[in-house]
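Hi support team,

I've been running sequence recovery on a batch of backbones for a student project. Most finish fine, but this one hangs at about 90% for roughly twenty minutes before it completes. I'm not sure whether the input is malformed or the queue is just slow. I've pasted the structure tokens below so you can try to reproduce it. Let me know if you need the job ID as well.

Thanks,
M.K.
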């Protein structure tokens, strides 16, 4: 427990230092999203602690832009059964939400947080419960550290759906478990604070919530390569309520559009077969008869093309060996390595040798004298692609060939 106190102190200090820094400017664009407070209201929390938490949450929301086309807030009590104090869109200003939080009464009972998280998931994604489709979702869980039922799996489900999870622990609690439960990185999403010191984190938490609510963070690209990238978005539709139309256009050639339809329960798509080093404009257009959700746009630039071997030089030809070298030489940062495949041009089994990244030559041994080989050098890139170049190599005629020369041996010399 000593470690806990030290950690709490360290976190509080860090927060206090951060607060003394320059004031943040207003957010780049007006935030929109659903903010759900999940508050431990069970008998494990003292009345005093509960009243301090209420005060803290009230001060946290008061300056937030709440209302239509802005943030919606809801408060759910954790107890034997989850219980909604107020739902999304019920109050349309920071001040009225603050009043509603101050009026909330403690429910007592068990601490069934897992149950409450499953309930929170329904509230966050059910438009009938007042949630908004296609907006960022944030969960703020205030806990004294304990739960009667498992928290990990339902929390993971929420994060998989794109919900940003902040955890405020006012009591004991297991650091590792709570770090895993909060969104990454935990330094930003997990706070250990004494109930009497909650005011220390108010500003930082409010700023982090607003950051998470920035609408431009919704459509994201990842795993960008020279020929592909992955798109990911928050759930806006369901399989029943509609589908998405994805559009991909090279920025320099607006006429060349690729389209793809994906089901309403999809939250990602990989675009492949793209040109290297090229800007693409991507649009995600939700199509639904039930909901109107606007399109989202993103520009993504593919990586420059990986250059494979551009030149192969055959040298040191002997009856049973040749040396193969190539350029350019790529290091371990670019390639995993090279493989060199060789076999008689006239047919026969091919063999393969591996050459580590950073080297540009190998000597092929055990060859047949006076034979034409096809040699292929392949660079295996870190991102999975391969680039190859081939060349012909001839071995010198051996002793036996010299004793019984073939008519065209000389013409085949290197
Ligand atoms: C979408 O729903 C269908 C069935 O309705 C299911 O087979 C599919 O796996 C789901 N896809 C995703 C990405 O959840
Ligand atoms: C292979 O690398 C060596 C040393 O870096 C260089 O001198 C040589 O020209 C390279 N081989 C080819 C075929 O470019």
């Amino acid at each position: 427990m000593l470690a806990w106190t030290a950690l709490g102190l360290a976190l509080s200090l860090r927060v206090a230092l951060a607060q003394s820094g320059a004031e943040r400017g207003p957010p780049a664009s007006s935030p929109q999203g659903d903010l759900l407070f999940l508050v431990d209201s069970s008998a494990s929390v003292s009345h005093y602690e509960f009243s301090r938490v209420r005060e803290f949450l009230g001060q946290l929301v008061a300056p937030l832009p709440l209302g239509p086309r802005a943030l919606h807030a809801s408060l759910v009590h954790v107890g034997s059964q989850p219980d909604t104090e107020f739902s999304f869109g019920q109050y349309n200003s920071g001040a009225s939400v603050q009043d509603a939080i101050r009026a909330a009464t403690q429910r007592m009972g068990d601490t069934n947080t897992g149950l409450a998280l499953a309930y929170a998931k329904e509230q966050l994604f059910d438009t009938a419960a007042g949630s908004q489709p296609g907006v960022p979702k944030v969960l703020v869980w205030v806990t004294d550290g304990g739960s009667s039922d498992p928290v990990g799996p339902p929390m993971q489900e929420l994060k998989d759906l794109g919900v940003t999870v902040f955890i405020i622990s006012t009591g004991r609690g297991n650091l590792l478990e709570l770090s895993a439960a909060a969104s990454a990185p935990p330094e930003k999403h997990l706070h250990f604070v004494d109930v009497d010191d909650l005011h220390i984190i108010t500003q930082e938490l409010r700023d982090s919530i607003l950051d998470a609510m920035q609408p431009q963070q919704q459509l994201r690209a990842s795993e960008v390569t020279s020929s592909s990238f992955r798109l990911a978005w928050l759930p806006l539709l369901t399989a029943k309520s509609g589908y998405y139309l994805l559009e991909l256009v090279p920025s320099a050639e607006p006429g060349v559009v690729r389209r793809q339809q994906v089901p309403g329960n999809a939250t990602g798509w990989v675009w492949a077969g793209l040109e290297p080093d090229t800007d693409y404009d991507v649009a995600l257009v939700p199509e639904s008869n039930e909901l109107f959700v606007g399109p989202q746009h993103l520009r993504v630039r593919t990586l420059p093309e990986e250059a494979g071997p551009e030149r192969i030089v055959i040298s040191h030809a002997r009856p049973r060996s040749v040396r193969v070298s190539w350029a350019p030489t790529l290091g371990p940062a670019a390639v995993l390595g090279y493989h060199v495949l060789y076999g008689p041009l006239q047919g026969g089994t091919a063999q393969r040798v591996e050459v580590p990244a950073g080297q540009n030559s190998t000597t092929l041994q055990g060859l047949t004298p006076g034979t034409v080989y096809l040699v292929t050098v392949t660079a295996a890139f870190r991102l999975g692609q391969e680039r190859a170049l081939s060349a012909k190599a001839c071995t010198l005629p051996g002793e036996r060939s010299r004793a019984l020369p073939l008519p065209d041996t000389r013409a085949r010399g290197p």
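--
Follow-up from support: It reproduced on our side and the slowdown came from queue contention, not your input. The chain has three domains: 31-212, 219-301, 312-394. No action needed from you.
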